[in-house]
């Protein structure tokens, strides 16, 4: 009897572990593909909790005569659905199926099955413990399993395995509940039900194992269906998925499916990001670059001999490592990260500025668009105030500011937020970049903000004479009444999602 109770307690622990992992996997995958992490996690948690309640309610109709067999059957279905949830979501995205609907449907099915687990396990353990001890054991062990899951998911599973393999691994782990119970209670189950359960167990195991063994091949096929060009580098990091493609002379980098640059026209972006700001300061010696892990902005900065130091703060070491060692990217950035003037720090930009003591003549912000709450804080008034506090007396800041055409309100929210942060002069401008479309930037000066007559390095696109044209905004994208974005009220996030939902 003691052994039987231990087996049931093991089942509770694994159930708690797997159930939270499935929830995290679905929400994280949704955030990867749809971008809005708040909506994805809120929807997943809400639907998951509600359907758990439905599952718990439905458990009252499970009869005592078939209690054990039905519980094993539910675990088999849960292992198969939960374990394959990420492959199913990848497939639906690649085939342009209704991703959000499928995500909610998977969450609901898993929620109902997880909701059935605890009541049924509690009933199976009734003969071992009193009601008070039974509820205490079941809930405490289940919650402890959930705690372990929330710790290992971001710290170990995501960086080592990625979401695809983690999903399959925990499906197989979930199967261990059914396998253990079927093995130990074999004689207590009706012979006809034993046959069906064994068959289903073998089917689920072979399905999940096959998906696990061929996961790399399936991922490659999925990438090929999503990206038109030949993939030359694919990597899942703790922070994002990196994909580099090559089509003739066009090298492209994608982060979580979003295009970061095309080598055909990236010079338009990076020259526009760096040179207008550099031309407004007569002697930039120290530069802080927030983001820019591809080394392309650093390439432009190194064209100015007066620059003595460039501090690059980019969160993901994998991007900088790619910029240093990948033959295509290192050629494109002219091995800028190997220059002695460049120091690379792998830190969150907000955290870095909070602790920084150094002052900079120029701060360049080349961060991803504000499409999640964690990124939106890097476009807040508090963030820009920290940027301003790290500038020298005549220091200048410049930031990419998403597209004034596709996300007009978000662009002007960034502009207005910077203007509200205490800078003396704020200058918006925009550039046509074929692979991106109309793209916006904002320069902010702590004191002086006029063009200097210093030497301009060789450029393919930017000239000082071009600037007046870049600062003209047609009437349809010149609506400047967007709200200032703050940590408490991240208006830029909602503006961004509202603008881009018609174009993604």
UniProtKB/TrEMBL annotation:
Keyword set, alphabetical order: Cell membrane, Membrane, Polyamine biosynthesis, Spermidine biosynthesis, Transferase, Transmembrane, Transmembrane helix
Concerning its family, UniProt says: Belongs to the spermidine/spermine synthase family.
- Entry's transmembrane regions: 7-26, 38-59, 71-93, 99-122, 143-162, 168-186, 195-214
Listed under subunit, the entry gives: Homodimer or homotetramer.
SUPFAM superfamilies for this protein: S-adenosyl-L-methionine-dependent methyltransferases
EC class, as a word, reads: transferase
Tell me the Pfam families matching this sequence. Answer: Spermine_synth
What exactly does this protein do? Catalyzes the irreversible transfer of a propylamine group from the amino donor S-adenosylmethioninamine (decarboxy-AdoMet) to putrescine (1,4-diaminobutane) to yield spermidine.
Q: Which residues bind S-methyl-5'-thioadenosine?
A: 240, 314, 348-349
**Reactions it catalyzes:** S-adenosyl 3-(methylsulfanyl)propylamine + putrescine = S-methyl-5'-thioadenosine + spermidine + H(+)
What is its pathway?
Answer: Amine and polyamine biosynthesis; spermidine biosynthesis; spermidine from putrescine: step 1/1
Annotated source species: Catenovulum sediminis
Q: Where does spermidine bind?
A: 270, 294
Where in the numbering of this chain does the PABS domain appear? 210-446
Subcellular location field: Cell membrane
Catalytic residues identified in the record: 366
Question: Major place of localization?
Answer: membrane
**What's the domain of life for this entry?**
Bacteria
Task: Cite the InterPro entries for this sequence.
Answer: PABS, SAM-dependent_MTases_sf, Spermi_synthase
Q: Which CDD domains match?
A: AdoMet_MTases (cd02440)
Q: Which protein, by its recorded name, is this?
A: Polyamine aminopropyltransferase
Any one GO molecular-function label of the UniProt entry: spermidine synthase activity
What are the EC numbers?
2.5.1.16
């Amino acid at each position: 009897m003691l052994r039987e109770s231990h087996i049931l307690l093991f089942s509770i622990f694994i159930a708690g572990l797997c159930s939270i992992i499935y929830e995290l996997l679905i929400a994280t995958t949704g955030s990867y593909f749809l971008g809005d992490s708040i909506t994805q996690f809120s929807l997943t948690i809400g639907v998951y909790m509600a359907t758990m309640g439905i599952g718990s309610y439905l458990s009252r109709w499970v009869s005592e005569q078939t209690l054990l067999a039905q519980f094993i059957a539910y675990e088999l279905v849960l292992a198969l659905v939960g374990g394959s949830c990420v492959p199913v979501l990848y497939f639906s995205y690649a085939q342009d199926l209704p991703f959000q609907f499928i995500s909610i449907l998977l969450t609901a099915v898993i929620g109902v099955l997880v909701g059935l687990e605890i009541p049924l396990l509690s009933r199976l353990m009734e003969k071992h413990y009193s009601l008070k001890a039974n509820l205490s054991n079941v809930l405490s062990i289940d919650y402890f399993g959930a705690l372990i899951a929330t710790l290992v998911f971001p710290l170990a599973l995501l960086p080592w395995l990625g979401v695809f393999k983690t999903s399959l691994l925990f499906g197989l782990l979930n199967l261990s509940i059914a396998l253990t119970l079927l093995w130990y209670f074999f004689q207590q189950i009706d012979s006809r039900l034993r046959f069906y359960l064994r068959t289903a167990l073998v089917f689920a195991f072979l399905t999940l194992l096959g998906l696990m063994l061929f996961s790399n091949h399936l991922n490659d096929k999925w990438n090929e269906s999503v990206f038109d060009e030949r993939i030359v580098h694919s990597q899942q990091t703790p922070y994002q998925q990196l994909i580099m493609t090559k089509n003739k002379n066009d090298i492209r980098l994608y982060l979580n499916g979003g295009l970061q640059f095309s080598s055909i026209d990236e010079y338009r972006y990076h020259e526009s990001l760096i040179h207008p700001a550099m031309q407004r300061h007569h002697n930039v010696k120290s530069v802080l670059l927030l983001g820019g892990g591809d080394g392309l902005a650093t390439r432009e900065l190194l064209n100015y001999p007066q620059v003595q130091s460039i501090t690059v703060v980019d969160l993901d070491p994998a991007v900088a490592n790619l910029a240093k060692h990948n033959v295509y990217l290192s050629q494109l950035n002219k091995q800028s990260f190997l220059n002695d003037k460049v120091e690379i720090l792998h830190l969150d930009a907000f955290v870095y500025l909070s602790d920084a003591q150094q002052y900079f003549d120029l701060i360049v912000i080349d961060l991803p668009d504000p499409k999640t709450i964690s990124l939106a804080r890097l476009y807040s008034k508090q963030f820009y105030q920290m940027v301003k506090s790290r500038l020298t007396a005549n220091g200048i800041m410049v930031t990419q500011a998403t597209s004034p055409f596709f996300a007009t309100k978000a662009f002007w929210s960034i502009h207005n937020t910077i203007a509200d942060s205490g800078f003396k002069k704020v200058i918006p401008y925009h550039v046509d970049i074929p692979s991106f479309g109309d793209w916006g930037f904002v320069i902010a000066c702590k004191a002086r903000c006029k063009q200097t007559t210093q030497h301009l390095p060789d450029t393919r696109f930017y000239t000082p004479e071009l600037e007046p044209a870049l600062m003209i905004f047609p009437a349809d994208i010149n609506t400047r009444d967007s709200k200032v974005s703050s940590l408490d009220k991240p208006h830029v996030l909602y503006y961004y999602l509202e603008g881009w939902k018609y174009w993604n």
